[in-house]
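Re: the request from the purification team.
They wanted to know what the chain is likely to look like in 3D before they choose a buffer screen. I agreed to run a prediction and write the result into the notebook, where they can find it.
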Amino acid sequence: MAKVSIVMGSDSDLKIMSQAASVLDDFGIEYEMKIISAHRMPEIFVDYAKGAMDRGVSVIIAGAGGAAHLPGMCAALFDLPVIGVPIHTSTLSGVDSLYSIVQMPSGIPVATVAINGAKNAGILAAKMIAMSDESLLAKLKDFKEDMKDAVSAKSDKLESIGYKQYLSEM
């Protein structure tokens, strides 16, 4: 099975980016995880991104806050999909990160999830890999069915006990 690379510019992003790793663990997808800065260690970063395919990486999930150049630089150097995760910042609540990632120039796309949306980045990476892996596709279908069942169970409970009781149990 293909491998995913999860990269982040700072250890302060680890709490969010670990959500992508958790999803990949659940689906049995191999991944590597690295703290690497496109700004503070550009030569090392370039070698890392350019060498990703040689390491078996087929998707990069890159989380970044503020100026958020990491996902775009990965996309500029890596020929396969890059998913950007804008990280919430105290200054502009992550909107700066979101705009920095989503506004890539034509020809250098970065798939972008919501601010702090690393869980969805993990699911999106799994879906990309599942295009050529029927076993993983089956797991994704089961995951979707489990989500449907969970919502149905909550709806049934709400119906049976009423909203006041439901709220008191939350």
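For the purification team: Residues 134-161 form the longest helix (28 residues).
Please add any questions underneath this entry.
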